[in-house]
Amino acid sequence: MTQPIKRIGVLTGGGDCPGLNAVIRAVTKTAITEYRLEVMGIADGFLGLLENHIHPLNNHNVSNILTLGGTILGTNNKCDPRRFAVKDNGGIRHVNRVPDGLRNLKAAGIDALIVIGGDGTMSVACDFVAQGINCIGVPKTIDNDLEGTDVTFGFGTAVAIATDALDRIHTTAASHHRAMVVEVMGRNAGWIALYAGVASGADVILLPEIPYDIDAVCRFITARKEEGKHFSILSVSEGAKPRHGEQVVAKIDPMSPEPIRLGGVGEKVANDIAARLDIETRTTVLGHVQRGGTPIPADRILATEFGSRAVHLLMEGQRNRMVVMKGRVVEDIDITQVANKQRTVPVDHPLIVAARGLGTCFGE
Ligand code: F6P
To answer: For ligand 1, is residue 261 a contact (CB within 6 Å)?
Structure first.
């Protein structure tokens, strides 16, 4: 027979994203107010579990954090307990530290875990699920690339920031008659570039899912000039790649379970245009600005719905689920279904079809 749940742990894993604190608040308040549970905050994602950085959370700790960016618990996107990277004699060796996590969970008397993270975090959670720990996942990422849910919190805020940047670039591009490239995040999924591109009326949108032909982009910019539009705005996803070419890698971090960091394609696109056309180009790389600061109201609401539902699922006796949004309804799916999967933009997505109809160039 399963033991009644009295004490739960909560952690935030992977890259941070606006809305994490809203989830922590919703989890803690729901657990205490509705169910009189004890809540333990685990610092810095799964790293804090391995290092035993576990502290009680109460209504006081989570007061006033709804609008705060980042995560009060701290996070980490380098820790895979199965293959924990350790620097050794100038090299790196990997050790299995899942047993450390299990020991610390037991010592802290934690009956179940609420794991707020992306595909990597859900995959790590599955290792604890396999060891009998009940984990409820809450999907987060600005990239919106998590399998099983229509949307993740943080995405809306990132799109708002990228849209604002593209809107601002518009006026300076027009004044200087330039082709202006804005590179946005998203890893291998072009959701941010697509949504911000459409929201700001970008002329060209380049996504990882549609490898671009730079000559097609240049023909499009030339055609605009011939129509009297002497500037162009390009919303470019960091994962975009040329047809017959590769993604641009900014950095490789061998200590990270996901070692490749993308970045630099914006500059490449700008240089390639400048080499072919008589137009000045400039690049803006938005980078981590997209992950920082206050979540928009829609993300606070989504995060609150997700956090609250996660606790209810646990107390309804559910095991190993991940909260998801399907249409406008919060549902839940098996957490093992989403581990290590990325949801990219379908090339026939209605927004791509609509934008094409408006004359937007996707580099084809
Ligand atoms: O997954 C979120 C994300 O911001 C991606 O869009 C980006 O590629 C990556 O994380 C950057 O990672 P880091 O914070 O390690 O530089």
So the answer is: yes
